[in-house]
Every structure is written in structure tokens, then in C-alpha cells.
Amino acid sequence: MTCLRCKHYEAKRFGFYGRKRIQRYRCPGCSATFSEPRKKPLGRHYTDPEKAAQIATLLLEGMSARAISRVTGIHKGTILSLLLTIGDKCRTLFDKRVRGIRPQFVQADELWTFVHTKERHMRPGSPDEWGDSYIWMAIDSDTKMVLSYLVAKREATSAYDFIRDLSERVTGRFQLTTDGLRSYVPAVEEYFGADVDFAQLVKLYGSNDGEGPEWYQPSKVTATIPVVVSGDPDESRISTSHVERANLSVRTHLRRFTRLSLGFSKTVDHLTAAVNLYMTFFNFCRVHQTLRVTPAMEAGITDHIWTVQELVECAA
Q1: Angstrom distances, CA of residue 150 to CA of 73, 155, 172
Q2: What is the dihedral of CA 93, 95, 100, 102, to 10 degrees?
Q3: Neighbours of 273 (CB within 10 A)
Q4: Whole-prediction pTM
Q5: What is the dihedral sign for C-alpha 261, 64, 248, 178?
Q6: Local structure of residue 282 (DSSP, 8 states)
Q7: pLDDT tens digits along 305-315
Q8: At what angle do helices 76-97 and 49-60 cross, to 10 degrees?
Q9: CA angle, 265 as apex, 264 and 271 as ends, to 5°?
């Protein structure tokens, strides 16, 4: 091995160090001692990829960070730090792979959660990132693949950002169905124009009586009204059932979306990282029970079922 310091001499073996008995070298010219550079697939983290994959798997199976710490013996701070690193890399992998998709029917919806404090409990002077937050998600009804997602407030600017991201990932004409949120209409008009068959499914909700076990549950849907906004959508396919089922999967797999628990997100960065990890896992690793393959395989952007460790190492 050539000396890493002077680059002039061939280094000689110089014993071992550490519990793992890592080979040490010594340069006969400059007398520098060093070990062979190690690959660090997780950047600054020293956690083994196998252990990191185990932590990611437990996060994806509905365990909280503290529960994973008790099971694995890894400090909670390390788990949350790994989540940020893996989540950021998963977003890069998602952006690289999910491009040029030609869907026929796309459904979009928003999933509620909160960061640190619920909106009605916010106090003056609280950080802007606290309070209600939403996952904006668009899914291909045929392949069940998540085409685009965004973690943001339920605001008009978020609708524009979400639809713009969707327009950059799909090609061809398709039918888009959303809920009745009015912000979708100008956003779809700006980024798709007349090149999409756009419809909204407006839902009418009943009211709870405020007593009994249903006092904390969402209001029940009493009726749905399909509204054609532009183009010529197939009325029999104006539905948001697939994306709403995907919303349920999010709540099942990520502890921070479980209602009435202490596993909620304390920062928007950790919420975004967890969503990045899950969306990439959903597309590449999770076998859909109806399709019998992963959504990415059904869409033709990969040829095998990814393992979580493969996802972590590839994303890293």
C-alpha cells in the first residue's frame, strides 16, 4: 500500500488495533502510521449498514425511536441522526428514479399530522414549523406507485409546489382526481393546462354529536359529488380510494402518524426524513398484496424487490 501521507514509499504492515483487529501500516520514509481507508456508506456515521438497516426496518414497522433504542441498545440520538441521513439520501434516490412515468389514472390527497404541537394548542411566538402539517401525495392507480409527495402546510403555495413536482415526474396525458381543495384548480391549470383530464371528488361530511366513543373521530362522509374541472375524465374513475388507502398504510407503518400517542414528530426535519424513507420503501421494497410485486416493478423502473439494507446502502 502506498503511503497516504507522502505518496513516495510502499507502506509495511505494522500490527493491528481495535477490537476488530484492523490492519495498521507504517511508512519507512516519513514514519507515518495509518490504516487502510474504510468505506463509509452512511457518511459520518459509524453504525454498520446491517444495524442501520435494522433500525430503518423497525422505524418502518411502526416502532418509536425510544422503543427501537430499548430493543437494539442504540442511543435515541443516534437513531434520529441516522433517520435524517437515510431520509435525505432516500429523497435523492426517489428524485433520481421516479422520472418519466406514463400513468393513466392519478389520485392525489393530503394526509394530516402535526409537528410538536397541535394547531389549536399553539401559543403566540411558537415556531412557524409547529402545528398542523400535511403529506401531499399523488399515486398511480394502476401501479400503486407514489409519483410525488410533499411535506408542507395545507396552503395554496404548497398546492403549487406539489403539482409542479408532479408535472416534472410524469409524461403524456392522464386523468387526475383530487379532493375538493380549491387550490388544486389554479395549480393544475398552470402546470398542466389542457394536457390533463382533471376532476375533483367533493365530499360532504356529517357532524358528530360529541358524545360516546365517536367524539374524537373524524366526521363521517355522507355523500360524494364528482366535479369535472377540465378535459374529458372518465366519470367511473373519478375516485380517491387508492390514495386514501395509501394514507392508511402511512399511518400503519410510521409511528409518528399514530393518533393519541407520544410518537409524534418534534421537528419538521425528522417528519420529512421519515416520510422520505417510507415513500422510497413503499415504491421499491414493499410488495403490494394486489400486484404481488412492488410498485416500482409494476411501473418498470426496477427488476427486483429491494431489501431495506439494499435501500439504505444504495441511498447512501
Answers
A1: 33, 12, 22
A2: 90
A3: 25
A4: 0.85
A5: positive
A6: H
A7: 999 999 888 75
A8: 80
A9: 130
